[in-house]
């Protein structure tokens, strides 16, 4: 498809489709912006491998896990007020998630 935008390509890379939702600006339901460094990170082999490992644990398809991880990592960056994380920082954040899911505190 000629003229496809970056968001379409991102959705393809995540194995999902792009969908746009319009909301009342006063509703407070805006999702955090995805930092450019995270957009680069989600295209790495490391990200895809970890999402693939988590999929059976969560009982979901890998593309669903990739989308959930993207949202979770973007939320962490937003909460930390950091949008300039390096790839290694994203890896460290991502590596903590399977540890928590596989070995939750009692």
Structure description:
By secondary structure, the chain is mostly helical. The chain is 60% helix and 0% strand. It has helices spanning 6-14, 36-41, 45-58, 62-80, 87-102.
List the helices and strands and how they pair.
Elements: H1 6-14, H2 36-41, H3 45-58, H4 62-80, H5 87-102
Helix pairs in contact: 3-4, 3-5
Short description:
The protein has 106 residues and is mainly α. Helices cover 60% and strands 0% of the residues.
Key features of this structure:
about 60% helix, mainly alpha
Per DSSP, the total helix count is: 5
Shape: globular
Compute the number of strand runs: 0
| Separation, N- and C-terminal Cα atoms | 50 Å
Give the helix level as a range of percent. Answer: 55-70%
Computed Rg: 15 Å
The main pleated sheet reads as: none
């Amino acid at each position: 498809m000629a003229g496809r935008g970056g968001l379409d390509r991102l959705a393809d890379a995540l194995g999902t489709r792009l969908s746009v939702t319009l909301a009342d600006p006063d509703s407070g339901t805006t999702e955090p912006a995805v930092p450019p460094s995270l957009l680069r990170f989600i295209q790495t082999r490391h990200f895809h491998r970890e999402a693939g490992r988590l999929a059976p644990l969560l009982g979901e398809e890998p593309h669903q896990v990739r989308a959930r991880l993207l949202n979770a990592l973007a939320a962490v960056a937003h909460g930390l007020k950091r949008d300039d994380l390096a790839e290694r920082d994203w890896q460290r954040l991502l590596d903590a998630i399977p540890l928590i899911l596989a070995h939750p505190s009692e």
